[in-house]
Input
Amino acid sequence: MSEARRSSQTRIWFGALFLVLGLLGHLFAAQAIGGSRIAYTHHVFGFFVGLVVFGAVAAALGWRFWKHRPDITLLVVGVAQALFGLAVYIERFRIG
Output
């Protein structure tokens, strides 16, 4: 396996890992505010809305700066979602 392919696969795995971490942030926040069905529904819906928004921004940036590199696009979306999930999880401490 070539070095370029190996690094591309590594970026894809890290992107997927960051997406899972972002979803976990939303799920833990939903659990922390009571764990009701509506809390989980809203947080999972928010994750997917964020995925669409961050995906659109990353796709536009990818089209402009890194064409034909879906691994970088997935990594950027994954990092953005992980940060967003972390922010949602931390924000739940401010709910009174």
